[in-house]
């Protein structure tokens, strides 16, 4: 690491930073973020396995290529199976998202009598009103929904292409001699920093998501039943907690809202207990998360939240997803130059 007083970026470093920044913006503007993330995920997993297996000590280029190719295909197969499994689960009767949303709507409608007036103004008066509102909304947004369906197809294709590219780059790493020219070397350093930032954020968020899902499962599946409380759609809520928690900060808000509203189906006391439990757990998790994320990308929760707010305003949901990774990369560049 170079001290701030001594640091003078070379022309190649400036060009590499500009090219990297432009690429980061284009991935968002051209809606290619799924391809970028899936490619990085496959590459980082294969690369980690390769390092742990010490493949460089294996004699014979063909042997190393065959091993890396097999690992790449295995990683892609596992990731695709996980995505397919989640899709099947959320579309099944046991984990149906539409059933959960309908259940939440029924619960909120049932509590209209005890809700404040200012809340009632935003809730349909009865089930028929809710259906009428939904029909009108669907008609007004039919084109948007059609576009969303097409976009979902493109996203799947982009994810598969990204995975394939990640696997190919993993193969290239086996035979790469790293004999770079100055600009290539500067770009390779930027890409390496970005890859490490991605790996740090993803690993931290997966750990946090697993912790959140574990605590939700313990509460919904063990603690509440001990007190004679059986809530519906427990598996769905646990799965939503895991998936939503992959998004920093905002994920907790989504999963907690679902659990508290469904808890209202039993009683307000259970809803209050759920809220108290979740707040307590997340207060404890705040320190754990700060340790997990802070140790990896040296960023606090409020820093990530600010980054997510600005990125969401600029790029929508893609900005929210990319914000932690982009922020971690930018901060790592600044740390490399001893500027923060």
Shape: globular
Order of helices and strands: HHHHHHHHHHHHH
Overall pLDDT confidence: 76
Give me the secondary-structure category: mainly alpha
Name the beta content range.
under 5%
Cα-to-Cα separation, first versus last residue: 12 Å
- State the major sheet: none
Task: List the topology elements.
Blueprint: H1 11-29, H2 33-53, H3 61-91, H4 97-110, H5 117-120, H6 127-140, H7 142-175, H8 182-226, H9 234-244, H10 250-263, H11 268-297, H12 301-315, H13 317-336
Helix pairs in contact: 1-8, 2-3, 2-7, 3-7, 8-9, 8-11, 8-13, 9-10, 10-11, 12-13
In short:
This protein is mainly α. 80% of the residues lie in helices and 0% in strands.
Labels describing this entry:
340 residues; mainly alpha; globular
Question: What does it look like?
Answer:
The protein is mostly helical and 340 residues long. The protein has a domain of 188 residues. The protein contains 13 helices and no strands. Helix 2 packs across helix 3. The longest helix is centred in the middle third of the chain and has 45 residues. The N and C termini lie close together (12 Å).
């Amino acid at each position: 690491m170079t001290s701030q007083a001594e640091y003078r970026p070379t022309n190649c470093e400036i060009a590499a930073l500009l090219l990297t920044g432009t690429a980061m913006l284009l991935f968002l503007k051209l809606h290619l973020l799924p391809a970028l993330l899936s490619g990085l995920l496959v590459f980082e997993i294969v690369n980690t396995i390769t390092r742990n297996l010490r493949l460089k000590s294996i004699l014979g280029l063909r042997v190393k290529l065959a091993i890396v190719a097999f690992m790449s295909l295995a990683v892609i197969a596992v990731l695709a199976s996980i995505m397919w499994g989640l899709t099947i689960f959320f579309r099944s009767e046991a984990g149906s998202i539409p059933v959960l949303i309908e259940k939440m709507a029924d619960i909120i409608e049932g509590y209209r009598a005890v809700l404040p007036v200012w809340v009632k103004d935003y809730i349909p008066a009865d089930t028929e009103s809710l259906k009428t509102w939904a029909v009108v909304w669907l008609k007004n947004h039919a084109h948007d929904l059609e576009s969303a369906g097409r976009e979902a197809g493109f996203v799947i294709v982009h994810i598969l292409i990204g995975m394939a590219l990640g696997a190919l780059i993993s193969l290239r790493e086996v035979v790469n001699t790293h004999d770079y020219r100055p600009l290539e070397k500067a770009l390779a350093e930027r890409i390496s920093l970005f890859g490490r930032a991605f790996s740090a954020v993803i690993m931290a968020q997966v750990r946090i998501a697993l912790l959140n899902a574990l605590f939700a499962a313990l509460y919904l599946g063990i603690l509440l039943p001990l007190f004679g409380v059986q809530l519906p759609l427990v598996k769905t809520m646990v799965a939503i907690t895991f998936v939503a928690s992959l998004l920093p900060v905002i994920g907790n808000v989504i999963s907690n809202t679902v659990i508290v509203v469904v808890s209202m189906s039993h009683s307000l006391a259970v809803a209050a207990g759920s809220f108290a439990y979740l707040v307590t757990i997340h207060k404890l998790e705040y320190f754990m998360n700060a340790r997990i994320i802070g140790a990896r990308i040296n960023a606090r929760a409020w820093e990530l939240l600010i980054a997510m707010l600005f990125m969401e305003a600029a790029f929508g949901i893609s900005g929210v997803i990319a914000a932690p990774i982009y922020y971690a990369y930018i901060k790592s560049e600044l740390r490399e130059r001893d500027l923060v």
